[in-house]
Structure formats: structure tokens, C-alpha cells
Design brief:
With 139 residues, the protein is of the alpha+beta class. The chain has one domain: Alpha-Beta Complex (Phosphatidylethanolamine-binding Protein). Helix content is 17%, strand content 36%. The strands form 3 sheets. A 4-stranded antiparallel sheet has the order 5-4-8-9, with no helix packed on it. The protein starts with a helix and ends with a strand. The N terminus is likely disordered.
Length: 139
């Protein structure tokens, strides 16, 4: 009798877990991608970065329901330094132009790898998609 009572509970846990994974994942979030070029990003090697305008970003497959994008720049070679980022209201455009926000620009003593992390958020502020892209600076 004891085994009979525990089997239904063991079966219910994986079903509940699998169901929560399915409902929490937006349909197209896996396809969300971003690309960028450093473009007019000023060269700097002093170790004292300036606040500068963001580069141009090109977005693909932004999750449905996105109303805001949050950007954060990380330096793989100096992970303790915060370059910051910004928030951009999203209206369905495929391009985020320079000047949408400011951040502390790259300023490495030698080429570093930088990673732009982007979150797509819905009207409630929930993250409904994530993507990232990396490039060296200077290239």
C-alpha cells in the first residue's frame, strides 16, 4: 500500500515541472538575436572610459509583447568593471540607433572582448527574452 501512494506523487512532480517550463518560455524567445558594429565608438586606451552614445544595434525576432529592451555591456577581460548600459522603449523597429542611451565606452589597454547582454521585457516588466553578442575592441 505504501508504494501505491508514493507512485502518483512521483509522477505528478515531473509533469508539473515540465508544465511550468512550457508556460514560462515565450514562443519565439529562442530566436531573439542582436548584432552591432562599433562604428564611431572612439578609441581609448587610458583605462578611464568616457560616457558615450550606444552603437547601432540590429534586432531580429524580438519576442512578441516586448515593450522595453535593457542593454548591459560586460568586459570578458575585466569582469569587475561596470560599463553600464541603458533602457530603450521598444516599438517594433529592427534598429536601435546611436544616442538611444549612453554607457561607459570600451577603453582597454589591449584588445578586450566585450559582450552586449540584452533583455526583452513585457508591459509588466517581466523578462520574456534574452540575447547577447560579443566583439573585440579595438577590432
Amino acid at each position: 500500500m505504501k508504494n501505491h501512494q508514493t507512485k502518483p506523487a512521483l509522477l505528478a512532480v515531473p509533469i508539473l515541472f515540465a508544465g511550468s517550463l512550457y508556460t514560462a518560455s515565450p514562443v519565439n524567445a529562442a530566436d531573439f538575436a542582436i548584432a552591432f558594429e562599433w562604428g564611431a565608438t572612439p578609441a581609448c586606451s587610458s583605462g578611464y572610459p568616457d560616457k558615450i552614445d550606444n552603437p547601432r544595434f540590429t534586432l531580429t525576432d524580438v519576442p512578441e509583447g516586448t515593450v522595453q529592451l535593457r542593454f548591459r555591456l560586460d568586459d570578458r577581460d575585466a569582469p569587475n568593471f561596470s560599463h553600464g548600459g541603458g533602457r530603450v522603449d521598444y516599438s517594433g523597429t529592427a534598429t536601435i540607433e546611436p544616442g538611444a542611451f549612453q554607457y561607459l565606452g570600451p577603453c582597454p589597454p589591449f584588445p578586450h572582448t566585450y559582450i552586449w547582454n540584452v533583455q526583452a521585457r513585457d508591459a509588466e516588466g517581466d523578462v520574456i527574452g534574452r540575447t547577447k553578442v560579443s566583439r573585440k575592441f579595438p577590432e
